[in-house]
Structure formats: C-alpha cells, structure tokens
Amino acid sequence: PRPLLPLLSLAGLKGSVGPKGAMGNKGDMGTPGDPGLNGHKGDQGEQGVCNCTDGEHGSDGSPGEMGPKGEKGDTGARGVEGPIGPKGDEGMMGHMGPPGPCSPTIRSAFSASINESFPKQNEPVPFPDVFYNLQGNFDPIMGIYTAPINGTYVFSFNLAVYQRPLRVGLFHNFYPVVKSTDSAQQSTVSQTIVLHLTSMDKVWLQVKDGTTNGMYSSYESSSTFSGYLLYPDSCGMPMLRDLGESNKGEKGVYSWNGP
Ligand SMILES: *[C@@H]1O[C@H](CO)[C@@H](O)[C@H](O)[C@H]1NC(C)=O
Ligand SMILES: *[C@@H]1O[C@H](CO)[C@@H](O)[C@H](O)[C@H]1NC(C)=O
Ligand SMILES: *[C@@H]1O[C@H](CO)[C@@H](O)[C@H](O)[C@H]1NC(C)=O
C-alpha cells in the first residue's frame, strides 16, 4: 500500500526516467509442468517370421479347398429286399376279351340193347333194355333216337348174329345210311358212324326182311345200339317244347330202301 505522505510538504516536479538497471540474477528453476497428453497410436509393425519347428501344437487349420470329383465307384452288392409297398390304386377296366369256347349245357346220349331176338322187318328195331338214356332222346320201345339240336352225332351198334343171316341198316330219316350183312354163323356185326343231324332228325336200326333178321339176344350175347351228341353246331339251346314233342317216336312202316 501506498505510504501516507505528510500533507504539508509540497511535491516537486516529477524526475526523469532513471537508467536501465543491471540484469538481475538468474531466477530459481521453476516447478515441473503438468504431463503432456498421450501421443497418437503408431503404425502396426511388420509381421514377424518364425521358422519354429518345435512350438506347441497349434490349433486346427481351416479346411482346404474341395478336391476334383473322383471316378465312379463299382456297383455295390444288392441290398436286402424292402417291405411290400401299399396296394396300388385300381386300374382302369380293360378291353373286352374275345368270346370264350363254346360250353353248351345240352347233352344227349343213349345206349340200349334188344331183349328179343329176330326183330320185325319194315319198322325200327326196339331196344327195350336201356343202359343209359338220361335225356330221354331215345325211345327204347320204338327204337328211335331223335336229335335234340343241330350238331354232330356218333352212332354205333354191336349186334350178335346167330341162326339166321343178318342184314341191318342204320336209318337216318327213313333212309338207310350204312348197311351191314353177316352170315348165319355165330358172329357180330358192328359199325360206328359220325353224322351231322338237324334238330328233330330221327335215327334207328332196321333189318331188311323176315329171313335176314338174325339179330340175336341171350344171356350170353348182347346186341346194343348207342349214340351221343359229339358237339352241337352252336351254343344255342333248343326250344324245350320242340324237344318234348321230338322225343316220341312214330310207329310206321319203313321200307329197307327208303320211302
Ligand atoms: C527362415 O528360414 C528361411 C529358409 O530356411 C531363411 O532363409 C530365413 O532367414 C529364416 N528366417 C529366420 C528369421 O530365421
Ligand atoms: C322186352 O321188352 C318189352 C318192353 O319192355 C317187353 O314188352 C317184352 O316183353 C320184353 N321181352 C322179353 C323177352 O323180355
Ligand atoms: C338247324 O339246321 C336247320 C337246317 O340247316 C336250319 O334251318 C336251322 O335254322 C338250324 N337251327 C339252328 C338253331 O341253328
């Protein structure tokens, strides 16, 4: 603080500026300054090289690139059969097949023998002892077979000949188709013939006359007449009404040579 001057003394004029003083002594060393800020981060150094061979086991490397596709291998052995799969869907309906073979329900057969020797002339020979005549197409008393249907038929006869000659014919609709002759010696006469008949056609056996009717029957000799439908012309069934009427033979007088 500025010193208090006595109020009585008058103040002189202000003196001129004195000479420059000698340079003062060097001052004491100052106190250390505050630490500076951190410097910038330096550049990354070069990567080091290491030819180490005895280092610790390193971690697994990354997988390499995929190699080229290898050659096709051999076919393997057949595997075990798998389980049965589920049932498939039902297929579409196929085309209609060709017609099947004819299986007709019509049948006809007979077999019978005479029970009296030396049958009458000019009429069919009766064969009263019937072995088989299930369909009834043969009239054993009249001795006439009536065809039930158009078709192919087989007829046969095996006749014992004794005491008189036998001259016999197989008649088809009033005319002899085949004729057989044998002498009076003990023998047999036989024929087998295939005929095509139309429905209602009639077939029978007939002897020529009263001297050549040596057809014989005894306990030890049978004379038989047989026939059957081999096969019909078609699978069609005959009309039953016609069949019923056709089974009745007609008693008539028939000449050896036909009407
Ligand atoms: C590493 O090995 C190579 C080849 O053997 C050699 O040239 C190189 O000088 C070696 N480097 C160091 C750092 O040992
Ligand atoms: C042969 O059969 C017919 C018809 O059944 C019969 O009338 C006749 O008496 C029989 N004849 C003999 C010898 O048995
Ligand atoms: C049987 O044959 C006759 C003569 O050939 C013919 O007129 C008739 O139509 C035939 N019947 C059948 C059912 O074929």
TrEMBL record:
Region (Disordered) residue spans: 12-105
Keyword tags: Extracellular matrix, Secreted, Signal
Keyword Secreted among record annotations: yes
SMART domains assigned to the protein according to its UniProt record, in alphabetical order: C1Q (SM00110)
Subcellular location: Secreted, Extracellular space, Extracellular matrix
Main localization, broad class: secreted
SUPFAM superfamilies, sorted: TNF-like
InterPro entries: C1q_dom, Collagen, Collagen/C1q_domain, Tumour_necrosis_fac-like_dom
Domain named C1q: residues: 103-236
Name this protein carries in UniProt: C1q domain-containing protein
Species in which this protein is naturally found: Labrus bergylta
Lineage per the UniProt record: Eukaryota, Metazoa, Chordata, Craniata, Vertebrata
